[in-house]
Each structure stands twice: as structure tokens, then as C-alpha cells.
Amino acid sequence: MSSDQGLSIFDEEPDAEEPDSEGVDTEGPATSSNAGEKTQVMPTVPKEPVASAPAAQASSPSTSTSTSTAASTAPTPTGATAVSASRPSPVAGAVAALPIVRRGGYDKAAVDQRINQLASEKSGLSSSLSASEQRVLELESQLTSLRAELDENKNPSYAGLGGRATSMLKLAEEEAADVREAAARDAEEIRSQAARDAKAMRADAAREADDMRLVQLQELEETRARMLADAEQDRNLARSEAEDVLASSRREADQVRLAAQQESNELLTTARREAEQARAAADREVQEARRTLAVEKERLAREAADHHSNATAETQRLVQEAEERATAAEQRAREATTQANTHRQQAQTESEALLSRARREAEQIVASATTQADSIAVSGTAEAERELAAIRAEVDRMTKRRDAVAAQLGALRDVVAGFVEDES
């Protein structure tokens, strides 16, 4: 509470005593006996200058001149002291919003500055309120002291000043009541303004917290969608690479299998051709041997006809030799056939071995491609899991940041609540 006025003791009154209009004795001896007394009064300093109470009119014509002269020569009180308490300035109605730092919540420096500003305003308001209350206590103490002085100094000298003293006491009480009412109004205005400011600050803080939470949720959703899209793209890329590797491996396996089959076919064809050639050569040798045998038989027959007696033994020998050569030729033909069959079987065995080796190599290539594709897929999955772990770490960091901001807002609310409680 505040006040702009104060009470003080006026200077001494003039020697002349003003008669009371309600039956005060105005005879000469009484007047002369009271003329030398000095009287002190209790003036008040109102908000607007209050003129001194006019001198009472004398009840008899014989004293009108003296009382008028005393009233006109009465000095104006100059000893009043006006001590005014500083009136607190109202708190600003509009509170600027706290700046928001992207991906970090409120700016800590701005929050600290706002808290320091509120603490400074609270300190100033508390000081103003304390000064106003102290001023009211001082005024009440002065009023009590003046009343005590009036009670202690009751004597006949106050008979002529009863109306004026009563009026001044009444003015002092009215002034004290006005001071108390003004202080109460100021305190109520300060409390109302503080409550409005606290409500506005709480609303701004809640709105800014909601906005920050929405921004963080939107950023987290965008990050999650982006990370999921990247993971899906990586999975698709890994799947495409695995399919490419598998297709390339299959093509290589088909090429190896085709090359092995072609080589096997070539070996088999070569073996068959060599066997046919060996069989044809054996047939030619047999036919040649038979033809030679026939020719030799004819020659021997002719010679036998000429030399029958001499050549019978020779003929038998030649026939035996021819038969032996024929048998040897047939044996060579059989051996050539057997060798051709052996070559054919060996070529077939080699071709089957080549086919088996080609199949094994193709299976190994396919298995390696499958393993590589699985490794690529697992690598893509591990990368997606690492990215998901990074997203979760980012979410945890944002959650901790939100909790820190909530704690700061809670501290700010506690400061405002303490400010309101102190004011009330």
C-alpha cells in the first residue's frame, strides 16, 4: 500500500484564543486569563491543499473585533512534513514470447533472462509494497500518538478549540482511511496485474511447450519416415544387387555347364570318329588281307596246278601263313574295336566327369551368389537396425530435452506461483 500524504504537528497558535460558539464565556477576565496560553493542533496534509479552518465568529459585539484580528493574523502552518511512499509501477501487461531454438526447445539464455526479469520485478514490487505498508504503519503510529497526546493533555485550554480539534481529528482519520484504501487498491491492482501476468505467462509457456512438442513430434515423424524410406531403399538395392549377383552366377553356371557339355560332346564325337576310323582301318586291313589271301590262293592254285607235286607242302605253309595273317588281322581289328570302345568309354567318363565338375562349379557359384546375396541382405538389415538404433537414440535425446524444458517450465511456474503467493 502507498500514500502521498503525512501528518505532523503544526507550529504554535497565536496568543489570542478563539471563543467557542456553544456557550463559551467571553467576558473580559476569562479572555484575558486565556490570552497568554499557547495551543498545539494536529493538522493533516490532504491530497489537495486544505485551507485553514476559519476563525469562529464572536457571540458578542464586544469581542468580534479582537477575534477577527486574531483570525486574520493567525499564521499558516508551515511545519507539516509530507512523506510520500513510492507507488509501484504496474507490471507490463504484454509478456513477450520466449524464443524457440529449432531441435533444441527454448533458448536457455532467454529463459534465464526472463526469470531474472521476473525476479527483479518481484523484488521491486515487494519493495514498493513493503514501503507502502511501512508508511501506513507510520501514519497509524502518528495518529495513535496524536490521539494519546490529546487524551493526556485534556484541560480547559482546549475548550475553545474543541470543534477545530474534532474536525482535524476527523480529517486525520479520513486521510488515514483514504491512505489505507489507496494502499489496498494499489496492492489489489498489483496482485491482479501479477495474477494476469502469471496467467498469461503460464498460457504462453503451455502454448510454446505444445508448439515445441508438436514440432518435435513432426520432426521425429519426418525422421522416422525418412529413415524407413532409406532403409526400404537400401533393402531394395540389396535385393536388386543380390538378384543381379544370382542372375550373373546362374549365367556363369549355365556358360560353364554349356562349355563342359560342348567339350564333352566334342570329346565324344572325337572318340567316335577315332573309333570309326580305327574300325574302318581294321576292316580295310581285313579286306586287304582277304583280298591278298584270295590272290595268293589263286596264285598258289595256279602254281599248284603247275607244280602240284612240288608245291603241296609250300602251299600248305603259305595257306597257314595267310590264315595266320588273317587271324592276326582279325585280332588287330578286334583290338582296334576294343580300343575304340575303350576310347569311347573313356571319353564318355571324362565327359561325365566334366559335367559333374561343371555342375559342382555351377552349384558352388550359385551357393556363393546366394551366400553373397544373403550377406548383402543381412548387411542391409544390420544397416537398417543401426539406423533404427540411431533413430531411437535421437528419440531418447529429444525426450530428455523435452523433460529438461518441462523442468525449466516447472521452475518458471514455481517462480511465478511464489511471486503470486508473496503478493497475496
UniProtKB/TrEMBL annotation:
Residues 51-86 have a biased composition (Low complexity). Residues 10-25 have a biased composition (Acidic residues). Residues 341-351 have a biased composition (Polar residues). Residues 1-91, 176-207, 228-285, 300-383 are annotated as: Disordered. Residues 228-242, 271-285, 300-309, 320-335 have a biased composition (Basic and acidic residues). This is Cellulose-binding protein. It comes from Nocardioides piscis.
